[in-house]
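Design job #97: recover the sequence.
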């Protein structure tokens, strides 16, 4: 739904222009001012993609040197998401926390802090600060949940985080839309609380918006401007309460890996890959000199995540490194038994149906992962047939150009043959 364009302001008491009069009536009815007014700074809020009709706007011309257009919404059904600027931690009278070190926190702690504002029903405000010192708008809410040393805004939150893919979102990550051309035009941020179902079309969003903090099922990534939202993960995330190993171990850089590289980071990479199931790729080592074994083991790990093409080239990047150092993501699946390159015979469709639990399901899942079609697995693959198996099979079938009943996610003889065909 397109949101209206308007400018909110706090009217001067001695101004009798039509805009200030309309704003005073709106305030008397309980509307929330989110900026300073007619004779001070105006705050542009949400950009409209459609014109409001039917008397839902009031025009105003301020006296004096300039003319001000103000269009008020007919109803506050989906309020704007204008954002404040970076501010000190404890409000205007506090001291900025410039230069403060990044604080460590866990996913559970982030969500627990987010829940506190939901329970307290903290009112939305760009200018007010809650009792914990954080500004009561959406970026202040994330600053609070991430335990940042100051109140950030949508234009600075990304500097405290690493960009991730939407499918890798986990509780405590954020979805951020910042419009640099007009920061107050729809800029917003939500905290990801988890998927609502296996389709990943909706998620639980914690957000600070008018009239107060809320938690609700939200379409990915948001009700509007969905394509412009970017997923981020806090750099100070740790794996356990009270400390633990940081998932934000800095990536040493692409130049540390590849032909000719010889350094301790190559050794560390190999050791982490061995821990994640890559032992079979190393006849000796791992060691400090980059070899094809490192490349193949890295590629196997990337394929296990469901990555394809340039994302699975065998050269570690920041995302690969973050999963390995943080001990997250999927392990490298075991090699097929027997060492034979012969294609296994199709065991029959009955082995791949709801309720099925057998070794053929495990074999199917591992082959899907090896071929780069394992993105729906959160765990496994294993012997019990799940919706993740069906969706991964469906992805493979669609990659073959099949549609309709031919791409229903249930393997038949032709799907099996093509999946296990030598490449």
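Job complete. Output follows.
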């Amino acid at each position: 739904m397109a949101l209206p364009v308007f400018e909110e302001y706090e009217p001067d008491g001695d101004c009798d222009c039509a805009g200030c009069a309309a704003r005073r009536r709106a305030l008397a009815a309980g509307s929330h001012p989110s900026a300073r007014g007619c004779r001070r700074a105006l705050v542009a809020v949400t950009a409209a993609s459609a014109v409001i009709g039917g008397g839902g706007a009031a025009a105003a011309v301020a006296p004096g040197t300039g003319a001000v257009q103000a269009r008020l919404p007919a109803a506050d059904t989906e309020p704007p998401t204008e954002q404040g600027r970076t501010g000190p931690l404890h409000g205007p009278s506090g001291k900025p926390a410039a230069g403060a070190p990044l604080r460590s926190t866990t996913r559970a702690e982030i969500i627990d802090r987010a829940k506190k504002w939901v329970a307290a029903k903290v009112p939305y405000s760009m200018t007010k600060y809650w009792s914990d010192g954080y500004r009561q708008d959406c970026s202040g809410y994330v600053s609070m949940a991430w335990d940042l040393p100051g109140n950030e805004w949508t234009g600075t939150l990304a500097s405290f985080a690493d960009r991730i893919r939407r499918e890798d979102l986990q509780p405590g990550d954020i979805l951020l839309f910042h419009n640099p051309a007009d920061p107050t035009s729809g800029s917003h941020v939500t905290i990801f609380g988890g998927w609502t179902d296996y389709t990943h079309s909706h998620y639980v969003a914690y957000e600070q918006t008018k009239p107060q903090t809320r938690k609700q099922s939200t379409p990915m990534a948001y009700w509007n401007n969905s394509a412009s939202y970017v997923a981020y993960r806090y750099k100070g995330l740790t794996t356990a309460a009270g400390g633990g190993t940081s998932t934000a171990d800095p990536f040493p850089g692409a130049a540390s890996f590849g032909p000719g590289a010889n350094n301790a980071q190559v050794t560390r990479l190999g050791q982490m890959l061995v821990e994640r199931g890559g032992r079979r790729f190393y006849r000796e080592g791992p060691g400090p000199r980059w070899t094809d074994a490192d490349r193949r083991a890295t590629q196997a790990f990337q394929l296990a995540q469901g990555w394809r093409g340039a994302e699975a080239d065998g050269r570690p990047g920041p995302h690969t490194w973050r999963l390995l150092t943080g001990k997250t993501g999927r392990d490298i699946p075991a090699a097929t038994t027997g060492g034979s390159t012969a294609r296994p015979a199709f065991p029959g469709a009955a082995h791949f149906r709801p309720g099925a639990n057998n070794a053929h399901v495990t074999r199917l899942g591992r082959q899907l992962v090896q071929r780069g079609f394992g993105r729906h697995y959160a765990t496994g693959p294993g012997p019990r047939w799940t919706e993740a198996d069906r969706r991964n099979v469906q992805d493979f079938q669609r990659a073959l150009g099949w549609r309709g009943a031919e791409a229903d996610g249930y393997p038949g003889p032709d799907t099996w043959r093509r999946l296990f065909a030598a490449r």
